[in-house]
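Sequence of Aspartate aminotransferase family protein (Massilia litorea).
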Amino acid sequence: MPSTNRDQLVALDRQHLIHPVTNFRAHEKRGVTVLDSGKGAFLRDIDGNELLDAFSGLWCVNTGYGQESIVRAATEQMARLPYATGYFSYGSEPAIRLAAQLVELAPKSLRHVYFTQGGSDAVDAAIRYVVYYYNALGKPQKKHFISLQRGYHGSSAAGAGLTGLPVFHRNFDLPTLQQHHIPSPYPYRNPVGQDDAAIIAASVQALRDKVAELGAENVAAFFCEPIQGSGGVIVPPVGWLKAIADTCRELGILLAVDEVITGFGRTGPLFACEAEGVEPDLMTMAKGLTAGYAPMGAVMMSSAIYDAISEAAGPDIAVGHGQTYSAHPVAAAIGLEVLRLYHEGGLLANGIAVTPRFTAGLQELLAHPLVGDARNRGLVGALELVADKKSKRQFDPALRVNEAVAEAAYRNRLVFRAFNDSILGFAPALCYTEEEFDLLFMRLKRTLDEVLELPAVRAAMR
Ligand SMILES: Cc1ncc(COP(=O)(O)O)c(C=O)c1O
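Predicted 3D structure, token representation.
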């Protein structure tokens, strides 16, 4: 029998708990790392190790851990009314107020909110509403969806097909025949080079070509993230989102912007769309909406979509999309308090104030022999490790450099995301101080130095 509580948890986890986007056998072999508590930017594991979290959980705990006012808001709501259905025209005050605040704060094209439990079901809801919308308009052939290679739009049965990452398709029979991907506007690795205008022009052309190939009369919508998070923190040039939005409008297809990561101060403003004056037809969000303190997501839509759906349903027929926990009052109460912290609590302002320190720390590491590219917008960023800087040659995946980095980082008490292709993703909380950034970059530099000393890594760089 396992002796300690930790050993018992590892054994039970191995036997019973399926982890998201994980190789089951590799996870069983490695065993779970149990996290126990958190305060501010720091986590503590079950062995008492204090870890600096440079990824805000999974780019969601934008407020940092242990925010007492959020705990109070949740506790009070739980005591008063832990659940209120949104069905049969019932509702609750926090959900109604949160919807109204989001409409006030989001791009002004977005007037209506449907709440979900996270990002995947927000994307799923968006897809379903778009399908309904075109049927309502009497354009039932407009059913094709376009998104970006390396884009991530969650893992619902439909949304995972819009996701442009092979592991979400493999053995899941995706993408469907109605789901298409165009190349990512990836500045570091782009056939047109690194010139911003050329990258934007090529991306717009790729969208035009795909729509022409399918026929605009058959295309429903283009889905994209303002910054491609799970695909490796790909930061398109400033102006890309606006150019894409203008193209969608011109081509008569809907634009659905997926701000699940970029929303709620991650890139500076509350939403990334704001920075480019983009007014999408739909927007999905989650993560920072409740800062991870409870599950909640949302899809927002324009009045044109809402009204067309309303009219097609007529006076009697329900629009058949719903979930028991849509507009959950405890999650909504948390969302309201989190929004207050972003604004009155000064978190958005702090995020903007410390961004230059984050940018400088990443850029300084460009001098490191392993680092081929450093990029960020606001408090989301990445380092791309390469075996050869000049040719941008990647490490052989068989070397599992990402695993070596994650292990070294953990030994150095630092948590971030090491993607498969040796891209290291960072998303520090908006509450980070300058001193916490000093610590982050000190530990990160040490981690990279240790990985550089590994004989297999040295050999691959020759
Ligand atoms: C852009 C984007 N869309 C959708 C999702 C899916 O959200 P969730 O994991 O809450 O289902 C994610 C999650 O990382 C995301 O980054």
